[in-house]
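Researcher: Structure prediction, please.
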Amino acid sequence: MKAAFAKLEAYRVRAGARASVDLCIRASAPPVASDFQRDMRQTDAVRPLPDILRLGEGVPLRDEIAEAQRRLDHLRTGLAKLPRPIGDAFRLHRIEGMSYRQIALALDIPARLVERHVAAAALFLTGWSETL
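Model: Predicted structure follows.
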């Protein structure tokens, strides 16, 4: 469309003020449309694959699943090694999604201590996961 208006303006300059807008658009639009059709035919070779050919994309391989399961088991072992109040605070916050205040009420400890427990557990588990 932009090309059609550029051609329109060039035509109006050549023809002077006598050129009508409708006539100019009719004169310039068909070549633009044929340019578009030609461009579409040329880009057929680089179009994305049809969905049927991309079925396997994004699906993890068996060895990737096994590796993820191994890392998860290792992390569970590390979580089991945490002292009870620290592990409980971490599980309630990160797994159950509870706030520090909710955890403090549930465990009957100060919210500031819950924050420290969660931070200590995260720090320990980060180091633990690197030992795999």
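Model: The chain has a mean pLDDT of 78.
Researcher: Thanks, that helps.
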